[in-house]
Write a structure and sequence with these properties.
This protein is mainly alpha-helical. The protein folds into two domains: 65 residues, no CATH class; 147 residues, no CATH class. 51% of the residues lie in helices and 5% in strands. The chain has ten helices and two strands. Helix 5 packs across helix 7. The longest helix has 35 residues. It is flat, with a radius of gyration of 29 Å.
Amino acid sequence: MKSRWLQIIWKMQDTLKAWNEYLKHNDHKNKIIQQTKCAHFKSQMHKLSKALKSIWRFAKWARIESQLFKRLSQFSSLKRSNIDYIITMFKKKIEILRRKFFSSSSQANVNNITESFISLTVSFNSRITEDEVKQTIKWVKADKASDTSDISNKALQASLAELISVLTSLFNACIIHKYHSKQFKKTQTIVLCKSKKSDYINLKTYWLIALLNIMSKALKSIMIKKLSDIVKTHHMLFNAQMRARCKRFMILTLDLLID
């Protein structure tokens, strides 16, 4: 009861002292519970060992999966094609995954594209406000996986009140100096298995996700919003433009195709 009461006090006061006091009593409570469980388990085992008729309960307890050693997760063997041999070595698996997902792409031929020049000059306020930063970071889902910086969206949202002025100054400095930080460019790419597949030997049953830096995503989202407003205000896109435009749904697409 004291641990729960200290938790309520910490949520009301939200201070470091209250947090440390709650952690201290919570750890003490967990230790007492663990010791009580161990003592009860030992006493029950001692009673069972004395009664020959209850010896079968040992065997039943030993067969429970929770009592067994946890098996280490293993990467499935891979095969590049149906006629290729099966690869079991871990280093070779990494190599064929790298060739599959990170192969060098061919460059597009742009020789037939002539240079163009747009004479339209547009002026806009590029300064980022605290409201824009707050709205953008709160818009991101809190339970998203973190990137290489290990800063989760939930942690950043929880500390937003203390970091809002720092983040706003940082984003404005990036715009003023026309510099995108190297830390913002770092991504973490993870190979995942496609769900509900009977066999994971084939490389086609895997796909990639890229975990981006949350602050980089926030800065990009703010700038995309500003550029979208400029494009809409000055009518810089054709009416038939679909990609990267909000509220462009199937009915409007069909209307444009029919017309």
